[in-house]
């Protein structure tokens, strides 16, 4: 685990209040989110981008959050960190991180956690790195701010970090500006910055979406490898189930601000219950498919924030929607597999246990578990 | 790099050619004969002819232009037709006055305007920001002569803190010199301070919405650090553009304040040369000021590449 001098070492390197290793959170899950809601206030009411989301994440594990564009993944990630603008935002629910109520913390307290205990890798490394600051400095500034390192110690640590994220010639690269690096190299810098202070939780918000297809799996592999070496927990946000296949321990599928299906990755991939998850699985492009085309795009668009249908939010696009779906909102409930929960009145492959009408059999993709390399 | 320098130098020459040509035409268009103005009412026609010949006034305009250009390229701005002094020497003698009040104005504008711009941008849409906007709009509304008169009235006439008019050269004591330069410098600075604060504010507000600023906050860096280290520098490009304009305005445009406070600077020299129909002097001053504009602009272009590394390759190409 200690492959770099700045690798996560909870005892000697963390600072301040959060450093207490016997913090109450260490006995429970690393992160526990309960009933989290985040909305934008407007003249027509509050538009809930994140609507009653709950989940847990244990130390060292990876949660994949999957959903179409606009489903609220980024807002969820930001709400967890407390990285929301104050104006016109409404936020409620609990975020418990190592026993600390992040949702009740002041920005000044949160700043001590951001970048140290909990850090973020952004979607587009071109825009999330400052174009007029040398990349080396963008790594060292975090070390110097949080770890009070001297300039030369931080320089050395930055070079080590760059080496650990496999940037060739780190000493030379450190003196370059973001525009002088390729997209993949820039994202490696983004990852190095996020890892600098040895976080326990890494939130990667679509870390490969803006990258060239050829480097996407390299970056994902790097994240996965760093995650296991440092025994970090990771939230991997993506709109592509193929990205999290084989990389996440648990999956949460988001639709219109809600988690519509969640559970162990194996269970969700093998027996998706909610038709939306099933549709997402079908839209994974496969490496053995020479055309690399989407197998089946989901027809229609997700509902607008302020115009969500009263019943199941997926009903207007769902091939197996019934009257009940359009009237009552299905709760997030469990099925046979432990920990596997979904929001659906008529779950797939569950006719036997559910009181669904006959003839509602779906052509599920059961057994078609995509390989980890299917990340295109 | 060599190409960049060469193209700059060519640009400079082009500006000098055009400016001197235009000035010559304008001077030529001023009604009245320079020779008769210089010699006064009672001059005989022989005297006039002699003078006209001496200044080649009867030659075609183009020929006179080419001749003066040849002098210009040698760095010779000629001699004043009135006093016979070297034009260049006269300008250089007046230059420190203008430069000093321009420098005072610019320093005040930056020292007050930059923090004000940063502060209001970081508090955008709060009462701090709104108060700042009101203050800066008050700064940029009144013309310089009005602020100058007002300042002179309050600080010189009423409070007797500073001299009303006149200039004390540095050679006669730094503190007296500064006292004589302060009011005109401040009068000039007020408008420019408002401009600096407003330009920096809007540039910073747009930088603050960039992803990399958000990302810097998400790394737990302090507000002040993010503001000064990540947001300020990218916002300096529009500021430097404006500072270039301000400098140009101050070099050539201190006229009103110089006249108001009776300062022996370039602005006053320009006025005198026009009033006395001293066309060689006038031409010299105009060309000199134009050169100043071009040099300031070249400097600003270089500063862009210092601020933004992305511009470096382009500048060299
Ligand atoms: N400032 C804002 N004001 C109003 N609505 C917003 C604002 N920012 C985001 N939204 C809305 O919130 C919803 C969730 O946005 P979010 O960015 O979290 O989606 P996402 O799942 O991350 O999508 P993507 O895949 O495009 O990143 C979207 O419907 C979006 O339109
Ligand atoms: S509740 Fe009905 S509409 Fe919603 S996903 Fe299930 S079957 Fe489809
Ligand atoms: Mg997003």
Automatic annotation (TrEMBL), chain A:
UniProt record, GO biological process: peptide transport
One GO CC term, this protein: plasma membrane
Stretch list, region Disordered: 1-28, 354-376
CDD domains given in the database record: ABC_NikE_OppD_transporters
InterPro entries: AAA+_ATPase, ABC_Ni/Peptide_Import, ABC_transporter-like_ATP-bd, ABC_transporter-like_CS, Oligopep_ABC_C, P-loop_NTPase
EC class name: hydrolase
Keywords recorded for this protein, A-Z: ATP-binding, Cell membrane, Hydrolase, Membrane, Nucleotide-binding, Plasmid, Transport
GO molecular function: ATP binding; ATP hydrolysis activity
EC numbers: 3.6.3.24
Membrane topology summary: Peripheral membrane protein
Compartments (UniProt record): Cell membrane
Main location: membrane
Ranges for domain ABC transporter: 31-281
Family that this chain belongs to: Belongs to the ABC transporter superfamily.
Name the UniProt record assigns to this protein: Oligopeptide/dipeptide ABC transporter, ATPase subunit
The species this protein was found in: Pseudonocardia dioxanivorans (strain ATCC 55486 / DSM 44775 / JCM 13855 / CB1190)
From TrEMBL, chain B:
Primary location recorded for the protein, binned into one broad class: membrane
Keywords: Cell membrane, Membrane, Plasmid, Transmembrane, Transmembrane helix, Transport
Keyword Phosphoprotein: no
Highest taxon of the lineage: Bacteria
UniProt cross-references to SUPFAM superfamilies, sorted A to Z: MetI-like
Subcellular location: Cell membrane
Bilayer topology annotation: Multi-pass membrane protein
GO BP term, pick one: transmembrane transport
Record InterPro entries: BPD_transp_1_N, MetI-like, MetI-like_sf
Record's keyword annotation contains Ligase: no
Transmembrane segments annotated in the record for this chain: 12-30, 101-121, 133-161, 236-261, 281-304
Coiled-coil spans in chain: none
GO cellular component, one term: plasma membrane
Domain ABC transmembrane type-1 positions: 95-304
Similarity comment: Belongs to the binding-protein-dependent transport system permease family.
Protein name as catalogued: ABC-type transporter, integral membrane subunit
């Amino acid at each position: 685990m200690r492959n770099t001098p700045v690798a996560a070492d909870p005892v000697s390197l963390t600072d301040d209040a959060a450093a207490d290793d016997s913090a109450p959170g260490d006995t429970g899950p690393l992160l526990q989110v309960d009933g989290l809601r985040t909305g934008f206030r407007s003249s027509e009411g509050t538009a809930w981008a994140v609507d009653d989301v709950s989940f847990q994440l244990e130390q060292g594990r990876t949660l994949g959050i999957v959903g179409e564009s606009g489903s609220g993944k980024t807002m969820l990630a930001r709400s967890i960190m407390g990285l929301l603008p104050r104006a016109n935002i409404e936020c409620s629910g609990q975020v418990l991180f190592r026993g600390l109520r992040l949702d009740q913390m002041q920005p000044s307290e949160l700043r001590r956690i951001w970048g140290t205990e909990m850090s973020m890798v952004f979607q587009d490394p071109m825009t999330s790195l400052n174009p007029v600051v040398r990349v080396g400095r963008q790594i060292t500034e975090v070390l110097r701010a949080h770890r009070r390192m001297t300039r030369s110690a931080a320089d050395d640590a930055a070079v080590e970090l760059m080496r650990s994220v496999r940037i060739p010639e780190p000493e030379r690269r450190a003196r370059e500006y973001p525009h002088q690096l390729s997209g993949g190299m820039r994202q490696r810098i983004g990852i190095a910055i996020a890892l600098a202070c040895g976080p326990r939780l890494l939130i990667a918000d679509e870390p490969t979406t803006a990258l060239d297809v050829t480097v996407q799996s390299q970056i994902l592999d790097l994240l996965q490898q760093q995650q296991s070496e440092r025994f970090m927990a990771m939230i991997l946000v993506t709109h592509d189930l193929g990205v999290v296949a084989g990389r996440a321990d648990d999956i949460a599928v988001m639709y219109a601000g809600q988690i519509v299906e969640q559970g162990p990755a194996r269970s969700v991939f093998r027996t998706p219950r909610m038709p939306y998850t099933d549709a997402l699985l079908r839209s994974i492009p496969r490496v053995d498919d020479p055309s690399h085309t989407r197998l089946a795009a989901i027809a229609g668009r997700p509902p607008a924030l302020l115009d969500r249908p009263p019943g199941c939010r997926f009903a207007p696009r769902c091939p197996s929607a019934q009257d009940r779906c359009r009237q009552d909102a299905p709760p997030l409930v469990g099925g046979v597999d432990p920990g596997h929960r979904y929001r659906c009145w008529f779950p797939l492959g569950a006719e036997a246990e559910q009181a669904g009408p006959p003839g509602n059999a779906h052509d599920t993709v059961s057994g078609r578990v995509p390989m980890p390399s299917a990340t295109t | 790099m060599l190409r960049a320098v060469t193209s700059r130098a060519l640009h400079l020459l082009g500006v000098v050619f055009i400016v001197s040509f235009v000035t010559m035409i304008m001077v030529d268009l001023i009604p009245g004969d320079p020779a008769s103005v210089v010699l006064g009412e009672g001059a005989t026609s022989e005297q006039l002819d002699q003078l006209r010949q001496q200044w080649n006034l009867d030659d075609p305009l183009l020929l006179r232009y080419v001749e003066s250009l040849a002098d210009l390229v040698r760095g010779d701005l000629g001699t004043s037709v009135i006093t016979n002094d070297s034009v260049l020497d006269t300008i250089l003698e007046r230059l420190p006055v203008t430069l000093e009040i321009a420098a005072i104005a610019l320093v005040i504008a930056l020292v007050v305007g930059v923090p004000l711009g940063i502060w209001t941008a970081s508090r955008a849409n709060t009462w701090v920001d709104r108060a700042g906007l009101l203050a800066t709009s008050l700064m940029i509304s009144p013309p310089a002569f009005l602020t100058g008169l007002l300042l002179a009235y309050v600080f010189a006439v009423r409070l007797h803190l500073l001299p009303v008019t006149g200039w004390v050269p540095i050679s006669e004591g730094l503190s007296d010199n500064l006292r004589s330069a302060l009011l005109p410098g401040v009068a000039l600075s007020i408008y420019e301070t408002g401009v600096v604060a407003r330009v920096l504010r809007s540039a910073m507000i747009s930088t603050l919405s960039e992803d990399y600023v958000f990302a810097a906050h998400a790394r737990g860096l302090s507000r002040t650090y993010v503001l000064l280290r990540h947001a300020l520098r990218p916002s300096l490009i529009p500021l430097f553009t404006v500072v270039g304009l301000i400098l140009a305005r101050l070099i050539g445009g201190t006229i009103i304040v110089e006249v108001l406070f009776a300062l022996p600077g370039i602005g006053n020299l320009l006025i005198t040369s026009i009033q006395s129909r001293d066309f060689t002097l006038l031409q010299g001053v105009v060309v000199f000021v134009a050169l100043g504009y071009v040099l300031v602009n070249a400097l600003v272009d270089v500063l862009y590449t210092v601020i933004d590394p992305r511009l470096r390759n382009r500048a060299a190409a």
